[in-house]
């Protein structure tokens, strides 16, 4: 199958070269879907000044050179090219897509190693709604890169090291290992941390024990490390409960926390200082990447080692980027991290480039994650002002989803499975359907609606298709057509389905799950129109038409299932 926009881009670029010279063949034809035709090319408007000719004259010149074209081209308005593809071409491409196991999604010609840093909760603290976005956006990116043939290395950069662990380990000893493990596994990390902190601030003896414990932790003394492992294992088991309920692909093998880099932090600092890349400023070791200044125009430091000799996020992050490039052989680095860290990430990339640890052939990208807001437009909190526990939020989503489907004729077990898929799918899709760097309001009523751009709407569309095949007693895999376009709704759906490969490629290229989500919503909407206007199983439907429409249904089902799967949204068979 060939994506229409890719075909049209290639043909228009060829026409540009034929009309105005080879130097114009790489110009962007600016092809977009149009309400007046299938597509509209606006390149004549952008080239008119460069060519010193009227846009409409440029457009006509291009149209005249579009020979052997799969449709018709008309010049309209001040210089737009309205393009309508032929039904025969759409039909041929749809049948090709139907026969293609990958449904038009091409494998990359040059597979890359893509390292994706995502989720990264802090130990001893509950996963809250703020971790939702980094976890599911990163997981969707991992899925899509694997689907197109890249080697994906997931990195769950846990906050599992540092000075707070002195008091956390001492608190574990005070309350006993068994009680500590039970509390951490139950997701009560915040209460655990607050209790330890209260003692640290009020009890001088505990304070001294905690400080001494930090020293033994940094020295990796065996007993301290045993206690640290007990603490971390219990915490990770809690994280895994969340990951399992969310249905993300992170495993324990993907954990690469701060502790992993502790042995090399001194080496990182020494190397940067010896090479003159980092200098001592006010007692701290800093890199001063160009272009970053403070309020008074002074160079902004990227602090590699604190004045007291301690290490911070910058130290670990420099060690991390070096490891991912030199050891993991990354071609592309995706950091799925909050938008509030934008300056830190920019300074990290700039400092790593100066050090030679981020060479030009490696692309590093901060996939900025916006905040989740409550109905009041402020950060999403409980009524008491605390962060909302992610596990409680997911449980509530499933309970509410069960209410949405309470009138269905399913057994208890199937009802629970559907409620899980709908509830979790609603939460994940609501997040993934908006640009990852934007804020959005968390609203269960909107998320769980069966109409509009929601997870349940898309799930219902694919469930409706499955019901067609059940009623017709046909296996979707046996619906081989051929597809023949007769009704405008058939044409619109077939044309929409041809864009699947491009939508997947664009998500991978631009790290933008919301673009794939938008494509899937448009596809589901086109199917709804098709379903309402084109009977499939009625007795008076011609057998050839029935076979064609079943094939369109099968192709739509495959696109929706695959697309939602790449987003990590579950797809129940029934709703």
TrEMBL record:
Task: Show where the DALR anticodon binding domain sits.
Answer: 458-575
Location in or out of the cell: Cytoplasm
Domain of life according to the entry? Bacteria
List the SUPFAM superfamilies hit by this protein, alphabetically: Anticodon-binding domain of a subclass of class I aminoacyl-tRNA synthetases, Arginyl-tRNA synthetase (ArgRS), N-terminal 'additional' domain, Nucleotidylyl transferase
The catalytic activity of this protein is classed by the Enzyme Commission as 6.1.1.19
Gene Ontology terms, MF aspect: arginine-tRNA ligase activity
UniProt keyword terms in alphabetical order? Aminoacyl-tRNA synthetase, ATP-binding, Cytoplasm, Ligase, Nucleotide-binding, Protein biosynthesis
Residue ranges of the Arginyl tRNA synthetase N-terminal domain? 6-85
Q: Which InterPro entries match?
A: aa-tRNA-synth_I_CS, Arg-tRNA-ligase, Arg-tRNA-synth_N, Arg-tRNA-synth_N_sf, ArgRS_core, DALR_anticod-bd, Rossmann-like_a/b/a_fold, tRNAsynth_Ia_anticodon-bd
Q: What is this protein called?
A: Arginine--tRNA ligase
Which source organism does the UniProt entry give?
Streptosporangium jomthongense
Whichever gene encodes this chain, its name is argS
């Amino acid at each position: 199958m060939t994506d229409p926009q890719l075909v049209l881009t290639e043909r228009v670029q060829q026409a540009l070269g034929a009309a105005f010279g080879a130097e114009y063949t790489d110009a962007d034809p600016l092809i977009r879907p149009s309400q007046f035709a299938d597509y509209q090319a606006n390149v004549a408007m952008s080239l008119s000044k460069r060519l010193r000719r009227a846009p409409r004259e440029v457009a006509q010149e291009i149209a005249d050179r579009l020979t052997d074209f799969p449709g018709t081209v008309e010049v309209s308005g001040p210089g737009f090219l309205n393009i309508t593809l032929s039904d025969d071409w759409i039909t041929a491409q749809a049948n090709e897509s139907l026969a293609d196991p990958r449904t038009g999604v091409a494998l990359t010609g040059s597979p890359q190693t893509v390292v994706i840093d995502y989720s990264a909760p802090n130990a001893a603290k509950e996963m809250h709604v703020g971790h939702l976005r980094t976890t599911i956006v990163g997981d969707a990116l991992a899925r899509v890169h694997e689907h197109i043939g890249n080697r994906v290395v997931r990195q769950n950069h846990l906050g599992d090291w540092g000075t707070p662990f002195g008091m956390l380990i001492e608190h574990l000893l005070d309350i006993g290992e068994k009680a500590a493990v039970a509390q951490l596994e139950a997701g009560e990390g915040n209460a655990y941390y607050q209790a330890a902190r209260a003692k640290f601030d009020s009890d001088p003896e505990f304070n001294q024990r905690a400080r001494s414990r930090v020293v033994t932790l940094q020295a990796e003394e065996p007993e301290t490390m045993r206690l640290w492992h007990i603490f971390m294992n219990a915490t990770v088991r809690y994280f895994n409960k969340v990951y399992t309920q969310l249905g993300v692909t992170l495993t324990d093998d993907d954990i690469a926390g701060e502790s992993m880099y502790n042995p090399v932090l001194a080496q990182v600092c020494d190397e940067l200082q010896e090479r003159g890349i980092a200098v001592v400023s006010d007692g701290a070791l800093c890199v001063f990447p160009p272009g970053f200044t403070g309020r008074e125009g002074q160079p902004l430091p990227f602090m590699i080692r604190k004045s007291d000799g301690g290490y911070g996020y910058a130290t670990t992050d420099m060690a991390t980027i070096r490891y991912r490039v030199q050891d993991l052989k990354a071609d592309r680095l995706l950091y799925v991290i909050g938008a509030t860290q934008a300056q830190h990430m920019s300074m990290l990339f700039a400092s790593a480039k100066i050090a030679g640890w981020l060479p030009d052939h490696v692309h590093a990208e901060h996939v900025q994650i916006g905040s989740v807001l409550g109905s009041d437009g402020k950060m999403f909190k409980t009524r008491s002002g605390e962060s909302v526990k992610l596990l409680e939020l997911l449980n509530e989503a499933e309970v509410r989803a069960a209410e949405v489907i309470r009138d269905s004729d399913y057994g208890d077990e199937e009802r629970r499975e559907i409620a899980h898929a709908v509830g979790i799918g609603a939460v994940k899709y609501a997040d993934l359907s908006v640009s990852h760097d934007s804020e959005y309001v968390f609203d269960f009523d909107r998320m769980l609606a069966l109409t509009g751009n929601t997870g349940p709407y898309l799930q219902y569309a694919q469930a409706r298709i499955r019901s067609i095949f059940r009623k017709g007693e046909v296996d979707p895999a046996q619906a081989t057509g051929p597809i023949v376009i007769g009704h405008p709704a058939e044409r619109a759906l077939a044309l929409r389905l041809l864009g699947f490969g491009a939508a997947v490629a664009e998500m991978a290229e631009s790290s933008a799950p919301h673009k794939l989500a938008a494509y899937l919503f448009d596809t589901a909407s086109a199917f709804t129109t098709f379903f309402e206007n084109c009977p499939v199983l009625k007795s008076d439907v011609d057998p050839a038409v029935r076979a064609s429409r079943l094939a369109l249904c099968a192709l739509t089902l495959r696109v929706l299932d695959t697309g939602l799967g790449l987003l990590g949204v579950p797809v129940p068979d029934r709703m």
